[in-house]
Amino acid sequence: MARTVFCQYFQKEADGLDFQLYPGELGQRIFENISKEAWAEWQKKQTMLINEKRLNMMDPDARAYLEREMEGFLFEGKDVDIEGYTPPSK
């Protein structure tokens, strides 16, 4: 049976992640408060950010930057700023 969480990103009850996908305290917070759907949204943004900014994931600074963006996106309602990308209008 799928576990549900109150998703802080969508502000509604939704299917939670099956297991903790990110390490540490932030990973635990994501597991407890972020839905599968919100995580999938972040994954798309993360891929665009990595490609746009040519981030090297072996670089601790790049990982720290990505973590800040992830936290802002998932918990603070901040959209990811990707140069040259215009989100489709709703």
UniProtKB/TrEMBL annotation:
A biological-process GO annotation: cellular response to oxidative stress
GO molecular function: iron ion binding
UniProt xrefs under SUPFAM superfamilies: YggX-like
Top-rank lineage group of the source organism: Bacteria
InterPro entries, A to Z: Fe_traffick_prot_YggX, Fe_traffick_prot_YggX_sf
Keyword vocabulary terms for this entry: Iron
Cellular component aspect of the GO annotation: cytosol
Ranges in a coiled coil: none
PANTHER family given in the database record: FE(2+)-TRAFFICKING PROTEIN-RELATED
HAMAP family registered for this protein in UniProt: Fe_traffic_YggX
Function: Could be a mediator in iron transactions between iron acquisition and iron-requiring processes, such as synthesis and/or repair of Fe-S clusters in biosynthetic enzymes. Necessary to maintain high levels of aconitase under oxidative stress.
Annotated family: Belongs to the Fe(2+)-trafficking protein family.
Name assigned to this protein: Probable Fe(2+)-trafficking protein
UniProt source species: Aliidiomarina haloalkalitolerans
